Amino acid sequence: MYDVNKVRADFPILAREVNGQPLTYLDNGASAQKPQAVIDAVTRGYDNEYANVHRGLHYLSNLSTDRYEAVRGIIARFLNAGSEDEIILNSGTTEGINMVAYSWAAPRMVEGDEIVLSTMEHHANIVPWHFLRERQGVRLVWVDPEPDGSLDPAKVLAAITPRTRLVAVTHCSNVLGTVVDVKTIVAGAHDKGVPVLVDGSQGAVHMKVDVQDIGADFYPITGHKLYGPSGSGAIYVRAERLAEMQPFMGGGDMIREVTKDAVSYADPPMKFEAGTPAIVPTIGLGVALEYLMDLGMDNVAAHEARLASYARERFKALNWLNIQGDAPGKAAIFSMTVEGGAHAHDISTILDKKGIAVRAGHHCAQPLMEHLGVPATARASFALYNTEAEVDRLVEGLELCHRLFS
User: Which NCBIfam families does this entry report, sorted A to Z (predicted)?
Assistant: First the structure.
């Protein structure tokens, strides 16, 4: 039985007040709060165990190395990767996608080659491909979502041509909460000989992920959205793709030997991990993922589905509230506008006075905002520790916004 009150007790920040009101934290899509276990691991890592990894022979270096490298296996279990050697540790999804752009895509794409994207993508899964458009003449091909915010796999696959070299698509929209049928997209793209990058920043947070079942070639995740520290993350890269990639960052740790005349590289994944990493944040990420696996991602998904259903019913009674996207099975992410002239920033400011934290703006998804015909939205994104009572507080805050602007 999922006990949300017990879960909440694991997150010390949830006991605080903001503006004299109990904190209702609904900005999880941007960054999630941290359980005490993660906070303790980070504190311990700095106050009692810190040293640089891999190169030292002393006790603390060996201890840090063991804790750090253990995270690779934890991530492999969390994503059900075939091997921990398919896990590259990094600072998060943005670095992961840029690595794919520089290490895999740029060396094999020429002018006129195409990348298929959905209009729902976060800028992190857009801007690296614009680099290739600007610098190499690669063409970006866009697939719009349906009116309900869903993404039709058939339309994505229909956009593939003989010049398509990659499909890059989100697993779960950070704006609409749409869960994309990436397994169907991957299978269809592979039938046409096209690899697929699936942006897992939101997907891995809200559901159990099996990268082998999905079949993705690339699947990046971000630690701070997964209840871990900022600056931590990883990307799963299928072994076949790893063999095709060249390093794009050079430095310590990613080399086998360096001379004045030549350089040879370490085997993957170390080949793609240059320099001193985010040691303690990565250790904290491992603790966060173990926390999630102990809770059970199926249990987390079921709890959030109940919250989403309850919120949807409460929102239906507010005929002046516009929710962007209502695809079947969407995650508990709601982007909204209020009729009467309230800007998203007004909504966020008013809610903040009630202790309610939401996001306001374009959410790093400007092409989607343009498609929706809105300059910005206020976004309430729910997490494993949120409650129906917090949905009620949000509704009360939105009702205040409506009264003030009507």
Answer: sufS
* Amino acid making up residue 26: L
- Model pLDDT for residues 194-250, shown as the tens digit of each residue: 999 999 999 999 999 999 999 999 999 999 999 999 999 999 999 999 999 999 999
**Which CATH number goes with the domain that contains 211?**
3.40.640.10
User: Is the pLDDT assigned to residue 1 strictly greater than 90?
Assistant: no
Q: What would the 3-class secondary structure string for the chain be?
A: CCCHHHHHCCCHHHHCEECCEECEECECCCCCCCCHHHHHHHHHHHHCCCCCCCCCCCHHHHHHHHHHHHHHHHHHHHHCCCCHHHEEEECCHHHHHHHHHHHHHHHHCCCCCEEEEECCCCHHHCHHHHHHHHHHCCEEEEECCCCCCCCCHHHHHHCCCCCEEEEEEECECCCCCCECCHHHHHHHHHHCCCCEEEECCCHHHHCCCCHHHHCCCEEEEEHHHHCCCCCCEEEEECHHHHCCCCCCCCCCCCEEEECCCCEEECCCCHHHCCCCCCHHHHHHHHHHHHHHHHHCHHHHHHHHHHHHHHHHHHHHCCCCEEEECCCCCCCCEEEEEECCCECHHHHHHHHHHCCEECEEECCCCHHHHHHHCCCCEEEEECCCCCCHHHHHHHHHHHHHHHHHHC
Query: Can you give the C-alpha Rg of the chain in angstroms?
Result: 22
Domain with 191 in it? 39-294
Say if residue 19 is in the same domain as residue 141: no
Give per-residue pLDDT as tens, 285-312: 999 999 999 999 999 999 999 999 999 9
The total of structural domains in the chain comes to 2
Query: How high is the mean pLDDT of the chain?
Result: 97
Catalytic residues: 364
Closest CA to 194 of 114, 97, 278: 114
261: tokens are: 């005349």
d(CA 143, CA 146): 10
Q: Which residue, 266, 294, 322, sits at the end of a domain? A: 294
What span, in angstroms and rounded, lies between the C-alpha atoms of 172 and 226?
Answer: 14
Beta bridge partners, 233, equal: 90, 222
pLDDT attached to residue 374: 95
